[in-house]
Amino acid sequence: MSKKRVGLALTGSFCTFEQSLEAAKTLIAEGWEVTPIFSENAYSTDTRFGRAKEWVDTFESLTGNKCIHNLVQAEPIGPHKLLDLILIAPCTGNTLAKLAYGITDTCVTMSAKSHLRNGGPVLLAVSTNDALGGSAKNIGMLLNYRNLYFVPMKQDAPDIKPRSVVSDFSRIPKAANAALEGKQLQPIFL
Ligand SMILES: Cc1cc2nc3c(=O)[nH]c(=O)nc-3n(C[C@H](O)[C@H](O)[C@H](O)COP(=O)(O)O)c2cc1C
After folding, report:
1. Distance in Å, CA 142 to ligand 1 centroid
2. Which uninterrupted H or E stretch holds 89?
3. What is the pLDDT of residue 1?
4. For the domain bounded by 4-180, which CATH number is listed?
5. What is the dihedral of CA 116, 117, 118, 120, to 10 degrees?
6. Does the C-beta of 93 come closer than 6 Å to ligand 1?
7. Of 11, 165, 166, best ligand 1 pocket probe by most atoms within 8 Å of the beta carbon
8. pLDDT along the chain (190 residues), means of 10
9. Which of these, 96, 134, 128, 130, lies nearest to 112 by C-alpha position?
10. Minimum-distance ligand 1 atom for the alpha carbon of 40
11. What are the sequence ranges of the domains in the chain?
């Protein structure tokens, strides 16, 4: 049987890159072909959570695939049916807003748009401090969109960050298989 192909898109929630890496390892162990996709910010920003180039190198060497990191590289995903699933993990508040409002000015939103063109599934692993604030309306809109799914999520630190929500990255493989079948893994909120 041919491998299931996932585009694993990282956006600029740098503190969760390590969790995304662990999810990528599990997906590969379960037989997925993983192609990394880095938002322009993720691709170019060095932070206290690591140097951008080192993250890119780590994901490329783990997956054996070059990463997609600009609009031109992302555009053929739909027309050439390159992937079965787009997984945005982590998905920032910024990218949630763009997806909700149809703004396609990053390689991650371009990848999603290109894949949605064919009715392909897009799975979001939210990681943002304002999920229950400024991003709440965007999450609400996206919950109502066809072919968009969420990795189950929860408030990660309600006492110190009362509006913050992060997906449970350990549930990515189950959520990915469900999304491929057109289903939302439940419960969405943990
Ligand atoms: C160190 C650091 C950590 C960040 N963590 C988050 C985060 O967890 N969630 C989030 O939504 N934005 C976070 N941001 C802000 C995003 O990186 C910023 O909104 C950026 O424009 C996102 O672009 P992208 O969605 O295209 O990757 C962080 C920024 C920095 C510098």
Report:
1. 19
2. strand 85-91
3. 63
4. 3.40.50.1950
5. 0
6. yes
7. 11
8. 92 98 98 98 98 98 98 97 98 98 98 97 98 98 97 97 98 98 98
9. 96
10. 26
11. 4-180
> Which residue's CA lies nearest to atom 19 of ligand 1?
94
pLDDT at 2: 82
Helix axes 17-29, 52-63, angle to 10 degrees: 10
Contacts 24+ apart (CB under 8 A), 178-183: 178/149, 179/85, 179/121, 179/122, 179/123, 179/149, 180/4, 180/84, 180/85, 180/121, 182/121, 182/147, 183/149
- Whether pTM > 0.85 for this model: the answer is yes
How far is the C-alpha of 8 from the C-alpha of 23, rounded, in Å?
10
Question: Ligand 1 mean position to 133 CA, how many Å?
Answer: 15
Ligand 1 centre to CA of 5 (Å) is: 26
| Ligand 1 pocket check for 19: Cβ under 6 Å | no
d(CA 78, CA 58): 26
Q: Is the CB of 95 under 6 A from ligand 1?
A: yes
The amino acid occupying position 67 is C
Contacts of residue 59, Cβ cutoff 8 Å, sequence gap at least 6: 8, 10, 21, 24, 36, 38, 67
Neighbours of 161 (CB within 10 A): 15
